[in-house]
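Anyone up for a design puzzle?
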């Protein structure tokens, strides 16, 4: 799966610009599905018929956080605005990938005092991107205002753990692709690769409207607490299994979905952990309120340094998430 994860995470596709990743995902799954559709917002919806059963929807968002160029000064420096939850602290010193060129993020400061103050109170007014060009005209050719950029950061293979930009949520995409490849489902399996999650769960707000699934599960990253002085009110550990979400700040997983996933994991001897995320949310929040309402939950992958250029996951969690979802799709009988 490493190659797949590398390919997905290294693709440029910020929110609202998901063309490339959509093409790659479709290419990966096309021999393993019974049909697909690209809806009006750009969501990719694929399905695989079951032998009977109900409708199970798995969703992962395919966009990634990024920045957009807003203004170019006379010396060719670019000002930016966030696309999704990207912190200026993570941007400082990082490299930005624009489709035509790469640039380095720098910080303003005419005196040491000002520099220290700017670091302490960092915001988007204090930073700029430098693409190594000396004037406005040339920069405007390469990065006209309105151009979207993403982190430029390598895929790092650490053995059982891998690191890249955009694990959020290409790791969810990789898991669902793998489920589609491996399963002969009993239930009618729908997978949605949705757009613009990072700017407000946009794609997933409508993606399930026509499907009307019996159960929907968002597959996304979550936080961690197993680093020095990690959050003491959480217990998420990399490598201890995929996390069955109880709640986050946007939704409460349906109790029946939580119980189902837990029971299935125990029956199949798949390690799992329980997640209560203190801040953040997933597409489950809007899947839940689609149409007359959809029974929804989230399966999460504990991920270190979320929204930084170097998001780390443990491949054991990824593999166990695939196993759990394959079991869910294949188990005969009622979904709940
Ligand atoms: Zn995110």
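Challenge accepted. My sequence:
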């Amino acid at each position: 799966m490493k190659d797949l994860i590398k390919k997905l995470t290294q693709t440029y596709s910020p929110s609202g610009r998901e063309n490339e990743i959509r093409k790659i995902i479709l290419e990966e799954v096309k021999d393993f599905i019974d049909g697909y559709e690209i809806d009006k917002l750009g969501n990719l919806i694929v399905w695989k018929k079951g032998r009977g059963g109900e409708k199970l929807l798995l969703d992962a968002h395919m966009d990634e956080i990024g920045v957009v160029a807003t203004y170019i000064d006379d010396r060719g420096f670019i000002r930016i605005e966030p696309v999704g939850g990207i912190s200026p602290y993570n941007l400082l010193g990082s490299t930005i990938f624009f489709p035509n060129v790469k640039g380095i993020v720098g910080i303003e400061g005419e005196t040491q005092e000002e520099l220290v103050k700017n670091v302490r109170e960092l915001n988007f007014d204090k930073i700029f991107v430098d693409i190594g060009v000396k004037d406005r005209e040339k920069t405007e050719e390469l990065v006209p205002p309105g151009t979207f950029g993403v982190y430029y950061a390598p895929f790092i293979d650490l053995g059982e753990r891998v690191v890249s930009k955009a694990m959020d949520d290409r790791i969810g995409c990789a898991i669902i692709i793998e489920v589609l490849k491996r399963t002969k489902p009993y239930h009618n399996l729908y997978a949605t690769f949705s757009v613009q999650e990072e700017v407000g769960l946009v794609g997933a707000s409508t993606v399930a409207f026509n499907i009307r699934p019996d159960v929907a599960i968002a597959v996304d990253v979550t936080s961690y607490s197993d680093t020095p002085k990690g959050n003491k009110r959480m217990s998420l550990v990399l490598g201890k299994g995929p996390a069955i979400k109880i709640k986050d700040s946007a939704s409460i997983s349906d109790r029946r979905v939580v119980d189902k996933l837990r029971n299935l994991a125990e029956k199949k001897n798949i390690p799992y952990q329980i997640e209560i995320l203190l801040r953040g949310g997933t597409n489950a929040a809007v899947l839940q309120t689609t149409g007359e309402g959809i029974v929804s939950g989230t399966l999460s992958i504990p991920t270190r340094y979320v929204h930084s250029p170097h998001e780390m996951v443990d491949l054991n969690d990824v593999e166990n998430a695939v196993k759990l979802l394959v079991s869910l799709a294949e188990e005969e009988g009622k979904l709940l």
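A detail worth pointing out: The two ends are 30 Å apart (CA to CA).
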